[in-house]
Amino acid sequence: MRSPAPASQAFIPYPDVAVAHAATGPLAGLHFAVKDLYDVAGYPTSAGNPHVLAMSGIKTRHAPVVAALLDAGAAFVGKTVTDELAFSARGNNAHFGAPLNGAAPARITGGSSSGSASAVSTGLADFALGSDTGGSVRGPANHCGLYGIRPTQDRLSLDGCFPLCRTFDTCGFLARDPSVFARVAAVLLGADRTPLPARPRLLLATDLFALVEAPVAAALQPAVEAIEAAYGPAQPVAAAGGRIGELYTAYRVLQGWEAWQGAGELIERHGLRLGADVAQRFAFAKQVSAAEAEAADAVRTAFTAALKALLGDDGVLIAPSMPDIAPLLDTDAEAFEIYRNRATHLLGLSPLCGFPQLSLPFACRDGAPLGISLMGPHGSDLSLVELASRIAAPPLSLDPAIGT
């Protein structure tokens, strides 16, 4: 482990413990950080909460995804701050602070993989493990100018990972450089069950682009054109089938139901002291009924079938990653809640259907990064990454000094 810069606030300040890695391998020479949901032998796992940290004890085994990276030659540099219990999108942990957005320092990193995005965007790690339940990799990737992936549901092992919502939890990762992103993908993802053709059928989610304001859509247009230049014109489609509001509600209900079923007893029995935003999220989750969750699951099943038919085995859906660039650090709670709800309309679709989705740092606005996303069929993860790596990214005018 190498000593991280404290100013980034990306890392949990654990004592330095040596973690061995292979001397050679496909990831040799790369350094990686690990979101503090995953077990690393010699370290505790806090899930972003001091009480969970106190109960953790020192772990004796690596989570399988961590072990795979070490076996491939990557060097571990530390465990990163996560939003508390992975149940916030703001990137500000009430106990461990707000990690720095290296691409736009006056703006949030987003969460819950806040420290992982910070470590990569500030150059303290070449790549980082995160988790994505409802956007916790894709949101920070958008905000910090990174490549990020939410893989196909259950594609990567979550053994040794603190859970939030098992139906939607996935292990994702972030990188600054597309070649590093592709190398990590090749190690972790393995062969695809549904490989995409060399020239996929592009679909433009016009209903999702309609959810962003005109300046954002205009900023994303060069990215759309770059993707079309690589693979041909995109066919306009309604990805949500006219049910975007219903899908938003279904996602929130299912996530809330499972989050409370998993963490409710821990919170109430041990009297966990939660940050205000996370406490508010769990208060909503506690109120979700089994009947509401059952109805929401029926919506999820129908949407999954419809999107599977739309994508087939060769379709790639283009959509905005987020509604806009990252909010400013001093955005008030009410304004951020509006932003988060807008974001969930975009971010909740991939969890509902379980299909893989990338966020690519192909756009910017007001000097700050803005991502565009690609979603592929179930099991197409690696070929989706490979397709993305062959797109010539448009030139950007990123300037952290003016990303305010």
Describe this entry's structure for a reader.
- Strand 9 and strand 10 form a beta hairpin.
- By secondary structure, this protein is of the alpha/beta class.
- 56% of the residues are buried.
- The protein contains 13 helices and ten strands.
- The chain has a ten-stranded mixed β-sheet, sandwiched between helices.
- 38% of the residues lie in helices and 14% in strands.
- It has one domain: Amidase signature (AS) enzymes (Alpha-Beta Complex).
- The two termini are 33 Å apart.
List the helices and strands and how they pair.
Blueprint: E1 31-35, H1 50-56, H2 64-71, E2 75-80, H3 114-121, E3 127-131, H4 138-144, E4 147-150, E5 171-175, H5 178-189, E6 201-205, H6 206-209, H7 214-231, E7 235-237, H8 244-270, H9 276-287, H10 290-311, E8 315-320, H11 333-347, H12 349-353, E9 357-365, E10 368-375, H13 381-389
Parallel strand pairs: 1-2, 1-3, 6-7, 6-8
Antiparallel strand pairs: 3-5, 4-5, 4-9, 8-10, 9-10
